[in-house]
Each structure stands twice: as structure tokens, then as C-alpha cells.
Amino acid sequence: MIIDDTVSMLDVAGIGFGPSNLALAIALDARAPGRRSCFFEKQPEFRWHGGMLLPGSRMQVSFLKDLVTLHDPTSRFTFVNYLHARGRLVDFINQKTFFPSRIEFNDYLRWAAAQFDDRASYGTEVVAVEPVTTNGRLTAFAIRIADAAGRERVVRARSAVVAMGGRPRIPEPFRPLKREPRLFHSSGYLRHLDRIRLADEAGGRVAVIGGGQSAAEIFSDIRSRFPRVKVDLILRAAALKPADDSPFVNEIFNPGFTDLIFSQAPAQRRAVIDEFRGTNYSVVDLDLIQSIYEDLYQQKVTGEDRLRIRAGQRITGVSAGEGGIAVVTRDTMSGVPAAETYQAVILATGYDRDLPRDLVGALDPHVTGWEPDRLYRVPMADPSGPVLHLQGACEDSHGLSDTLLSVVVIRAQEIATALAAHLDRMDAAAAPARRPALAGAAG
């Protein structure tokens, strides 16, 4: 979508255009047809976890948890219809799996997103969401956007939905080196393969920091992609732990579980989330753990020392020099220190998913708090004015599934329904009062 001076007021401004706001775009088509919306995305094109589209990597959730099936299995946006459109439906069935490759699911999302090109503005970063007031009353949001060249302009909107995804988490010891090119986050892994290739050519060593799925996948990918490089997987836990994806435990990702979590007091919510963290954080698919263990065992047979799992390590110091990045660790059990220099360090350390307050801080005088309600709305001082919804930043209030694909469909439907009703009310309140015509006198 080209934003020009003819765009006076949007009904819905989407901040970010990943799976969450893509599902919302689909829902708005059904719930609020004719409403003017635009989704602003910083990336130059739609791409889902582009830095981690590794060969052989598979989805960890069923294809039935796509953009729309849980709400409307007959929709043209289902994964099954995508397969049909691509001419691969029968071939996919023959695989006998519920879990497509991550590369294929990204292609499905891109296929769906392409159908909203008239409502997507790629290469556009939302810099701030600011208030527009009339006589002290909030009447709209000023969405300050910037293109790739840094040129800014403002678009106004009567509602906004923030779905920016996670921001790479950089552990404290590594923050002083954030501009160091030999250090990068797993989100950009495939874009930095040249760094690992240099280490491979020199027979050097690289480190992967983290104990979750991404860390294990990168460790395994480096092993197979670069035959000479030495790889350390450094994690604080005592061992790689398998994800619990058993059926009863997986029920915490059911859309209905959101109501249960939200109805609890904050302390109880946190207790439930902590109890089930092993379903999503710092855990690895069991098949991948077994594959890595087999690689390490075969290494013992051959006498190689190329792959190492350095478990139970706390990182105490990091520095960069001409020879590489020095990482100092201390064993969490024995207290024994160690130091190693690496030609590249990959941080598979997860994401921060809280709402970026610098993005919305100007709205502080117009909100009564930042904890969203059940429909993911930020409580506004004037409930009849512009409304702000959050997607993917509500784990503390709505549960572990908030950052995952599991509730994307139902959440988008809930938000779209709430937006449609709210915009209708705003329209009704803004319409000129119509006085009934005076009846003629009887006689």
C-alpha cells in the first residue's frame, strides 16, 4: 500500500505484519468489511523468522493451527487450500505428517500475505504512536512512520494493533559488544553464514549460546553445513531438556485456556506459567536431542573433538580482540572457571516480547494502565475514543500461548469483532444528531 496525502484517517493501523496481524487482516475482512486498514512492516517483504529457515527444520505445531482453520475451516486462507493452490495437496498427504517444514509454512504465510498487498506497507518502520487531541480529548492516534531512508511522515488512525513480534534478547555480558560483527543473534543466523564460513576455512571454533530449540538447531546445522569448524554449545542448564508436548500438557495452548489464565489473580497466573515453562522455553524436540547425542557418541568412537556441549556454565566475562571473542565461564556445580576464544558467537537467547514503551510512551496521559483487558485492549481514560490492542505482548496476563501460533486465529477474531463494534460506536457518536421531524398539527 502506498501511503500518500490522500490517506486522511485509517480505521485500523497495524504495527507489524507477521502472522498475528496477518490473521487479523483476514478476520477484519469478514468482521469489518469496508474499513480502511493498513499494516506497517519494517521488513522489505513478508518473511517469518527468515534467519532461521534452516533446511530440514520442521514446525512444532500442527498445520491445522494456521491463520484461520480453528475459526473457519472452509476459508480460502487455510493451509490445506494453500497446498491445493500450489498443487501439492496429495503429495503432502503422502508424507503422513501434521508438521510441515518451516520453509513451507513461511511460504504459506507469504502466499496469504500477498493477498493483502493493497493493505501492507513494507519497508516502513513505526517510530512512535502519539496522541491527537481535540479540546484535550483523545480523538485519534498519530502513527509516525519512517521509510528505509529515514524519511518520516504521520498517518492518523482511529485504532491501532501492535504486533511487532519479539526483540532479540542480548544477555548482559554481551551488551558491550552489540556492534561487534562476530557476535550476532540467532534471528540473523542465515544472514551471517559468511562469519562461520571464515571460521570453517581456518579450522576455528564458534560458540552457540543457549539451551533451547534454536540453539540446538543451529548447533546441528553448523555441524552438517561446515565440516571443519569446531562448535561449542554453551548452556547454563545441566543438560539439554526435551520439550513436553504430550496431549494433556498441550491443552494449555488451547484457545479456551486463555480464559482460565486471565481469570486468575496475578500470582496464580505466574505460578501456572512457571509450571508449564517446559513446554516452550529452554527445551528441545526429543528427536533433535537424540540426533545430537548420536553425533557426540560417534565423535567418541572416532576420537574427534569437533563438537562439544558445555552444559552447566555461567558466563562471567566477554571481550573482543584481534584473535576473536573471548568467553569466560564458571561451572555452576564445581565453580571451576574456563576461557575460550571463538571466531564467531551466536546468541540463541530468545526474545523480549513486552510492549516497547518508547513506542507508545506519548500515550501515557491517555491510558489508565498498560495491562490489557481480556480482549487485549489497553485501558484508555476515555473508553469511547481511539482503542489500542496488543498481540504477542500479553503472556503475563493471557498465558504461554500468547507468543505462539496456537491462539493466533481466535485472538484475531476476538480483536476484529471488538474493533468492528468499537468503530461502529465511534461512527454513531460522531454522526450529527438527527432530530425527528415535527408532526403536523391535527385539525
UniProtKB/TrEMBL annotation:
Any GO BP annotation: intracellular iron ion homeostasis
Keyword Transcription regulation: no
UniProt keyword list: FAD, Flavoprotein, NADP, Oxidoreductase, Plasmid
Transmembrane region(s): none
Coiled coil: none
Cofactor: FAD
Pfam family membership, one: Lys_Orn_oxgnase
Keyword rRNA processing among record annotations: no
InterPro entries in alphabetical order: FAD/NAD-bd_sf, Lys/Orn_oxygenase
Family to which the UniProt record says this protein belongs: Belongs to the lysine N(6)-hydroxylase/L-ornithine N(5)-oxygenase family.
Protein name: L-ornithine 5-monooxygenase
Gene label: pvdA
